[in-house]
Specification:
This protein has helices at 15-18, 46-49, 54-61, 77-91, 102-105, 116-131, 147-153, 160-175, 196-200, 210-235, 257-279, 284-292, 303-309, 359-373, 399-417, 466-476; strands spanning 8-12, 95-99, 135-141, 182-186, 240-246, 249-252, 314-318, 322-325, 334-336, 341-343, 349-350, 356-357, 377-381, 422-428, 448-450, 462-464. It is of the alpha/beta class. The protein has a single domain, classed as Glycosidases (TIM Barrel), CATH 3.20.20.80. The strands form 5 sheets. An 8-stranded parallel barrel has the order 1-2-3-4-5-7-13-14, surrounded by 4 helices. It has a two-stranded parallel ribbon with strand order 6-8. Strand 9 (334-336) and strand 10 form a beta hairpin. The protein starts with 7 loop residues before the first strand and ends in a 7-residue tail after the last helix. The relative contact order is 0.14. One of its GO terms (molecular function) is beta-glucosidase activity. One of its GO terms (cellular component) is cytosol. This is Glycosyl hydrolase family protein.
Length: 483
């Protein structure tokens, strides 16, 4: 069968990891602008890498430093986007997933009127994308909420954020209705409990009950997602709105029924945010979890109807690795994953950052998601962080990356041949960028090398890796030729 003729091949980036220009043209500080690179901390210790306190935020706001606050500099996409878009066009991209930085449009999140320079910037970016025959896929919230809303309200724990976010989204829909058809609400919405500040602007030391605030933030984001889905459909006819899930595929460590149950529970909680956005209601097992943990979600009378009446059009997800679970963690060898720590599968190899490499897991994930939701799917993040070397003649020989994608694409196509309705695939990331979790540059994902090190030193010049030409051919043949 193979992939559909209009399959959307491309790549995915986020504003906070590429744009830089963190205080240019009226942009306000976001939660990403206080994220630090900590060279003294093990890159696999995510709890310390992404930890934030009120004191650390105050310290960050006292300085304009971009050396140890790498997301403030990114890869200078803000000024170099025409060059990068030309490279993406040369790759043959059908789509590019980007995000709109909320603080470029509303610097503090509460302004009466949007920042015109921010709107003009994204209008120019979309124009450049269409010039290169690239369809935009836009994430409205990708770890970039205004810092002011985190400090003032403790982020999404406060219901006030719903209308502020809706206002931001409506401005985007009206301004870019002729430019963008495909939209996503929240990046990896399930991640609120893994990194509440990054995902939801929750500052742990401002919470009396962190778990309560996290699940309240989930609910507020669900309502916001439903409302902006409604607005998008009304403002942009024929638009499509998707949700976005971190697919943390988990296997039992053994056939011991207790391990099977531990894995089931982990997968159930991973699915739950997408369940709400697809089915428009809370799963009964999750409601039981709330009860057992003493969680009371504050809702307005109309909330459940809003959720039910405004479900998403498709399900998008990130997939990087799989893990195993046991009823007793002493049975596991622990390893790092996508901002989590879990059981290492002894049958799988790992990347330099400890993430297991599981191509078959991608096929399993596609089959699980399609069987569960019966809606079109979109793989919007998949890739491997690796240490690349630039040779004297400015080449990057990254056959390891080619092999990674080759095996994942084979399994992806097998899932499609089994009947999965797959809209497209965007690699994370087509160009090297600042890592979300560790704020590093040396954790490289791209088909395009950026000459910048972890401390921001380098020319920022772009160079094509060997994988660039391989991916270019894969797209040209619509996945028919992987070798």
């Amino acid at each position: 069968m193979g992939l559909r003729n209009d399959f959307l091949w491309g790549g995915a980036i986020a504003a906070n990891q590429v744009e830089g220009a963190w205080n240019v043209d009226g942009k306000g500080p976001s939660v990403a602008d206080v994220a630090t690179y900590k060279p003294e901390v093990d890159v696999k210790d995510y709890s310390k890498q992404v930890g934030v306190t009120s004191d650390s935020i105050n310290e960050a706001l006292k300085t304009d430093d971009v050396k140890y606050y790498p997301k403030r500099r990114g890869i200078d996409f803000y000024h170099r986007y025409p060059e990068d878009m030309k490279l993406f066009g040369e790759l043959g991209f059908k789509t590019l997933r980007i995000s709109i930085a909320w603080t470029r449009i509303f610097p503090n999140g509460e302004e009466e009127s949007p920042n015109q320079k921010g709107l003009d910037y994204y209008k120019a970016v979309f124009k450049e994308m269409h010039k290169n025959n690239i369809e935009p896929l836009v994430t409205l919230s990708h770890y970039e909420m205004p810092l002011n809303l985190a400090v003032k309200y403790n982020g999404w724990a406060d219901r006030k954020i719903i209308n502020l976010f809706r206002k931001f989204c409506d401005v985007c829909f009206k301004k870019f209705k002729d430019d963008v058809k495909y939209w996503l609400t929240f990046n990896e919405i399930d991640s609120v409990t893994r990194h509440p500040f990054t995902s939801a602007g929750i500052i742990p030391d401002k919470s009396d009950n962190l778990l309560q605030d996290e699940y309240q933030a989930f609910h507020n984001q669900f309502v916001a997602s439903a409302l902006v889905t409604k607005d998008c459909h009304e403002i942009i006819p024929n638009s499509m709105m998707g949700c976005m899930l971190t697919k943390l595929t988990d296997y039992p460590n053994s056939s011991d029924p207790r391990d099977v149950l531990a894995s089931f529970n982990k997968n159930t909680m991973n699915y739950f945010p997408a369940d709400v956005q697809v089915f428009g209601e809370y799963p009964k097992l999750v409601l039981d979890f709330f009860k057992k943990n003493g969680l009371t979600i504050k809702m307005e009378p109309e909330d459940l109807n809003i959720l039910k009446e405004n479900t998403v059009d498709f399900v998008s997800f990130s997939y990087y690795m799989s893990m195993v679970s046991s009823y007793d963690e002493n049975n596991l060898t622990l390893t790092a994953g996508n901002t989590i720590v879990g059981g290492k599968n002894p049958y799988l190899k790992s990347t330099d950052w400890g993430w297991t490499v599981d191509p078959v897991g991608l096929r399993i994930s596609l089959l699980q998601l399609y069987d569960r939701y019966q809606k079109p799917l979109f793989i919007v993040e998949n890739g491997m962080g690796a240490k690349d070397s630039l040779t004297e003649d400015k080449k990057i020989h990254d056959n390891y990356r080619i092999e990674y994608f080759k095996e994942h694409f084979r399994e992806m196509i097998k899932a499609v041949d089994s009947g999965v309705d797959l809209l497209g695939y965007t690699s994370w990331a087509p160009i090297d960028l600042v890592s979300a979790s560790t704020s590093q540059m040396s954790k490289r994902y791209g088909f395009i090398y950026v000459d910048e090190d972890d401390l921001g030193q380098g020319t920022f010049n772009r160079y094509k890796k060997d994988s660039f030409y391989w991916y270019q051919h894969v797209i040209a043949t619509n996945g028919a030729e992987l070798d």
